[in-house]
Amino acid sequence: MTLEAFADTIIPGERRSPDDRAVAGAAAGGGAVAAGALELLRWDATGLHDSLDGFATALDGHARAYAAETGLTLDETVPPFVALAFADRTELVRRITTPGHPEKALWVSLALFCNMAFDSAAHMHTADALAAGHPGLTALGITPPDPDGRWRFPRFGYGRPLARLHPDTTPSGSPA
Amino acid sequence: MSSTERTDVLVVGSGFGGAITAYHLAAGGAKVVVLERGPWLTAPDFDHDFKLGSSYTRAFDFVVGEGMSILGGNCVGGGSVVYFAAMPRAPRFVFERHGSIGRRMWPAAVSRDTLDPWYDRVAESISITQQGWQDVTYAGGLWAAACDHAGRTANPVPAAVDLSKCTNCNWMMAGCHFDAKQSLLLNYLPAAVAHGAEIRPLHEVQQISRTGDGGYRVHYDVMDAEDYRLRGESGTIDAKIVVLAAGAGATPVILQRSEQTLGKMPHAVGRYFSGNGERLNTAILNEDKVREVLGLTREDGLGYAANQIGKGPVVASWDRLDGSLPEYTRYSLEQLYFPPGLGTILAEVPGATGPSWFGVDKKEILKRWQSWLIIFQMIEDDNEGVFGPPPAKGNADRLSQQMLGVGRLKYDPRPSTLRAWAMADAEVKDILERDGIAEVAAWTNDVVGAYTVHPLSSCRIGDDPATSALDDRHELRGHPGIFVTDGSAVPGALTVNPAMTISALAERAVPGIVRAAQERGVEVTYGAPAPGGGTSGRRGVTPLLPTLTR
Questions:
Q1: Is the pTM value of this prediction over 0.95?
Q2: What is the pLDDT of residues A70-101, one digit of tens each?
Q3: Which residues are B336's β-sheet partners?
Q4: Which of B233, B243, B336, B348 is least surrounded by CB atoms within 10 angstroms?
Q5: A2 at the B interface (CB within 8 A)?
Q6: Which domain of life is it from (chain A) (predicted)?
Q7: In this predicted model, what pLDDT tens digit does every residue of A39-55 receive, in sequence order?
Q8: Where do the domains of chain B lie, and which CATH numbers do they carry?
Q9: B-chain residues within 8 Å CB-CB of A151?
Q10: ipTM of the complex
């Protein structure tokens, strides 16, 4: 739940149900969680799969410290990071991914895969993800491939001169 | 104990620096073995798929450093398989750069004039197309039109792409399924194999030691084909000559690790690294303004919305490549494509007031991804990169099964580099924000540092032993018989895409390597034609040979 809330902070999405706590509902449409961030993180190919419990524990620790520092009282029925409001989750993630933070590299790597779940569905074959209406690939507007799973764009350009060439271009097309 | 395997020439890496030297040495009669860390993939293997484990991640290496991350090839053919095939020659002034070492960085023997015949050899060997406006993609055309609108010039970029086969799928970074991209898999490497060179994929070289007879012993690990965190057996091969071409992110690491067995390395091994001054900007286009201001419309009434379509960089603005301008103020601005997976996380929200690279506003700009135009700056940096002590194995501690690792490079840009980036940022903004065409923001350097796809200079040529690891013939100072021919040999940032220059330098290095091999008793001669049989390039370099085989 904590890592879902982290993924939702990176690319926010709409709540899956009215009582969804991990997903804060800060944006319309599916976010990183709906895109499969947890499926991707749990895959051993990422190299983070064995560390996820540790990430969650550490993030909750940061959330407790953040709450204490800012005078927030956390709802104890959910993990501390989940108990933070979206704006506070965002501020905390900003702090722990800022240059100079000793754990920055760890949180950046976690964010990297959350982003990849959304922008490239890295846990799924791309054609399958598009066919299934993957929220990230769909949001980016990526068009489906040809029936053989390959992309081809027969119409690709404006087809006319659009600028003057640099006067010092060599006959082979390089700068002089 | 098995008997030690022997070869005349051992080449480490099969990208431009390795493939070119392997071809010429094998064609000249030497027994050549090429050890390549990555897999051997060919056109049927090149997927259109972002799933981890597809060719998109198998063929790549993304190494996070401190202040600089490197994206490089990791397969037979190296960078040529995953690059965008832009093949411009470096402008004349680049060879006269001083950087901050108080003297010319390049050897006196190398200038644009003396390198041009070697560029010609490459152009005869790799089919390079001088693209016309009819070949230019929507993204390239948009950049050209915006440059023109702002009073700048713009040029279609010469590219190693067979346009008759290209589908403009924009999957070049995963390898070209259609064999349109003229990677080394289609020219130098098959020619090397035809002349008897052996290419061994999934062999990662760890270090080099000496043999008792003046030669070298190369130590390697065999890598798992799928999970590069796993290693199989280790082995060694003895060679009379070693050519290091593992890439500028790996060659210095192998040499650093070899210091305990080879003895002291030149000071410049693992120093003076350049990211080729690279930095990216994202413009998010206003589609109405594209039509109204630039007068551009696609066949279906759209203005642009074509980020997905194309073949990498197609158009560049070279107005700042002016040798009369001071160093650190010259740069090119090239339209580029970066696919999802690697190409969105660092993009920042233009004018962000909250977090710039994640969160609610970031999601909003992702929804406009088809209207993104990515502009690639190549400025003159100041060779600020330094490699720390090497990891136990390879060039990085691998985190993921493929692609992602943590390396030892530290890069702290000096004010001259930061000012140049700021200048280029401002110019991109000036060009693309005119009349509301787009909103522009730079990629953040705060997440994984600066970011280069063209690592250079970490083991460079030069005339000054204090600031160059190699002499002007690419031989490692103090270690005769070891040559370096990859991007690490390039003295500094080039202000353009470097593949053509790396290749020309590798071609130029061959006569010296042949001479060194001959001196060690190898029966080898220089003078093979181009891989396709052409001989005009060979004629062009003939007058230069005496200076390289002294």
A1: yes
A2: 999 999 999 999 999 999 999 999 999 999 99
A3: B374
A4: B233
A5: no
A6: Bacteria
A7: 999 999 999 999 999 99
A8: 1-86+88-125+178-275+383-411+451-530 (3.50.50.60), 130-158+278-378+412-448 (3.30.410)
A9: 48, 167, 169-171, 308
A10: 0.97
